[in-house]
Design brief:
Length: 220
């Protein structure tokens, strides 16, 4: 049900309560509005995160964290959990973990959140969120020097993304896999990963990923 449909249903349930005397309908109306609020909070938080990434790419250094971002994701997680929506909760937990990893550089806090997100996503069949969580768990393992684990996580994320047709995401993962290959002295594999990433990114207009590939070629 779309947000617009939920709001319209809440209006109908309000009228049932006021004119029909069915006060029990108000609980259903509140649940519908909680779902709309959760979706909106998650969407607003994602926009703030994208703005952070854009500013970082433009300036070459990390901008200040927007203080509204984390409360939005936490509110979404709280509401999805209360609604019994594991898919929504998995996505909100992913974004909380992503914030701690990407913005606060705190993998100690991020990894348990990402693991919980991955498990919830896997159980609820939410493959896009599972792939996202696996990618960032791979990043955490790479940062900790656990290269085999990092490679396994990113390859599993890439497998899911290929199945979903999320090819720009595959290209982004291939950049990470290239860095891992280089760290393991698999330089031919690193070059091949970047070549494949470049072909995918160019074909799908993933200009941000193309810039990442160009930077990787200078560093590997």
């Amino acid at each position: 049900m779309s947000g617009e449909d939920r709001i319209e249903r809440a209006r109908t349930l309000y009228e049932q309560a006021v004119y029909g005397g069915d006060a029990g309908a108000l609980a259903d109306a509140e649940r519908d509005l909680d779902a709309v609020e959760a979706d909106t909070a998650l969407a607003r938080g994602r926009i703030l995160h994208a703005r952070f990434l854009d500013e970082r790419a433009r300036s070459g250094s990390s901008p200040a964290e927007d203080p509204a971002e984390l409360p939005l994701f936490e509110r979404a997680s709280e509401l999805y959990q209360a609604l019994g929506d594991p898919r929504g909760e998995a996505e909100a937990l992913f974004w909380i973990g992503c914030l701690y990893q990407v913005i606060r550089r705190d993998n100690e806090t991020a990894v348990p959140l990402l693991e919980r997100s991955r498990r919830l996503a896997a159980r609820s069949g939410d493959r896009p969120t599972e792939a996202e969580a696996l990618r960032h768990l791979g990043i955490a393992a790479h940062m900790a020097g656990r290269l085999d684990e990092a490679r396994e996580r990113l390859e599993e994320s890439s497998r899911l993304r290929r199945e979903l047709g999320a090819l720009p995401g595959v290209a982004a993962n291939l950049v990470g896999l290239a860095y891992i290959a280089a760290a393991q002295d698999r330089h031919a594999d690193a070059r091949a990963a970047l070549d494949e990433a470049h072909a995918i990114a160019r074909a799908h207009g993933a200009h941000a990923v193309v810039r990442q590939i160009e930077q990787a070629r200078t560093e590997i």
